[in-house]
Amino acid sequence: MDKENTTKAAQCAALLSSDVKAVAASENPFLAELGQEALELAVALEQRLKRLETLANE
Predict the structure, then answer these.
(1) How does pLDDT run across 1-58, given as a tens digit for each residue?
(2) Which of 9, 10, 20, 25 has its CA 20 to 30 A from that of 49?
(3) What distance lies between CA 27 and its chain's CA centroid?
(4) What is the domain partition of the chain in residue ranges?
């Protein structure tokens, strides 16, 4: 169950990063700024979940 949950979480984080990246590329400067901040957090979360996924699959 841990393997499945960590894999799903990592996949969701990758989708989140992708969607937030689009917001960060917004022509609206305010949205772009907030999107960039959120993107940094989303990418960090995605990386941590990928590490957990690797550990769970060992």
Answers:
(1) 788 899 999 999 999 999 999 999 999 999 999 999 999 999 999 999 999 999 888 8
(2) 25
(3) 22
(4) 2-56
**Matching residue, tokens 């022509």:** 27
Q: Count Cβ atoms below 10 Å from residue 43 Cβ, excluding itself.
A: 16
Q: How far apart are CA 34 and CA 49, in angstroms?
A: 23
- Count of Cβ atoms closer than 10 Å to residue 13 Cβ: 20
Are 18 and 35 a contacting pair, CB within 8 Å? no
Report residue 21 as tokens.
Answer: 């990246």
Residues 28, 19: Cα–Cα separation, whole Å: 16
Residue 39 has a CB neighbour count (10 Å cut-off) of 21
